[in-house]
Specification:
single chain; 91 residues; alpha+beta; 47% helix; 15% strand; elongated
Amino acid sequence: MSKFTPGPWEAGLARMNEPDKRNIWAVSLQVASAKSPWLKQEVQEANANLIAAAPEMYEALKAVQRTLSAIDTSEIAQAIDTALAKAEGDQ
């Protein structure tokens, strides 16, 4: 079982005191922030969107893993196992 905050997550603006900051929200709970003084605003927004998609991508990858485990032991299956282990904090 995963230990992260369940999705769906959404990327959105921070509160009024940091208008250039992008946060990632699960309902009304902030789960991450994507602000960096070294990145352009559009890159920060893209990073926030990618992070916000993580729960859905994780679930999709788990579904692919279940299917491949029955039919395939290829490098793709190994790459999926490695990525999921990293997401689950096992690597």
